[in-house]
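User: Hey, my collaborator sent me this sequence without any context and asked if I could get a structure. I don't really work with proteins. Can you help?
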Amino acid sequence: MKYILSNAKVFLQDEFVKTNVFIDNDKISNISAAAPENGSVVFDLEGYVIFPGLIDVHTHLREPGFFYKETIETGSLAAAHGGFTTICAMPNLKPVPDCKETLEPQLDAIRKAARIEVLPYGAITKGEKGLELADFDEIYQDVCAFSDDGRGVQNDEMMREAMKIVKKYDKIVAAHCEVNALLHGGYIHDGAYAAAHGHKGICSESEWKQVERDLELVRETGCDYHVCHISTKESVELIRQAKKEGLPVSCETAPHYLVFTEMDLQEDGRFKMNPPLRSKADQDALLAGIEDGTIDMIATDHAPHTLEEKSKGLAHSMMGVVGLETAFPILYTELVKKGILSLEKLISLMHTNPAKRFGIGSPLAVGMPANLTVYDLTASYTVDPETFLSKGRSTPFAGREVFGKCKLTLFQGKPAFWDKADTTLDIFAKKL
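Assistant: No problem. I've predicted the 3D structure and written it out in structure-token form, which is a compact way to encode the shape of the chain:
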């Protein structure tokens, strides 16, 4: 089917241009102000913006193994609701995808149920137990990268050998950095809030010390290395210096670390995640890292749990919050509208940079698949978890006023999500 998205401001080569996007056979056939031909199906998106589908390199979709928390279908629907067209799914599953046999159930679920592009991670170690390396040779062609997310690889030699093998396959090691010996049963940041309220703290060193170790291994092996969800000022500085050395290193942080600090904590499981919310000094360092390019991208670390698992306060709730459906509106509201970031920079952090680093997704360009999202940046609303398409409901952003409403997400030219309250878009989706 041929159709045209007209009169929107379209993100093209780092700037917004008011123009038309022509779609033919699920691909972008033209981007221009040319008048539609007679008989063309035209959808007037005056007042909206169009940018390439967002990319999230760090999500937990829970399938296979934990269907009660999330599924490929519900997680990918939630992603489309947030404007994402490519997401990478972490391997802390059952079974853990550490060989061809254990990866296949996840690939099968993706083929059957994914509403957008879902790319699996392979595990670094078998069962993510840190005792034996995964069968990299069996799965490297079917995974976006390798990670033991949720666990740091504790053994130095094992991480060294993993990097050597992964480098051979031209893949990325994406590390959850955490030194188990430094955790001491902690579950929130070891700072002022923990001290004032009698909680066990997680020290910053537990994160940055393993970043430091891994960077030394990168110097030895030359492996492409990516640090997941950094939260401390020391991690930022270590990565900054590594980049100055020319090491093949990248990193991500998450929206909650940029908006909240430990002093925003409440005695509620929806504020509990790993790494935890840190100090104001850490947050300032993260924002500085984004500004100077040390931090390459923002990922959600979308980690759904059941209501019961998240209703046991800070001490006893499971770690993890959902984020696919709030990431862009929160960041637009808190960073762009407040003048901390430009909108163009935000799109680079959520599309361009992860696309380049991981070699995934597709640009908004002629000849490419029509993977894009349409937003109304003037729309304001209150974050209500009951409207989420994810099974997860636990978010620290519940009740927060935001700007930026996703109106439509196209994946390969077809609507993966559309705002059913918008008459034009509802007719559009039904026609397709």
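In plain terms: The longest strand covers residues 2-12. You can pass these tokens on to your collaborator as they are.
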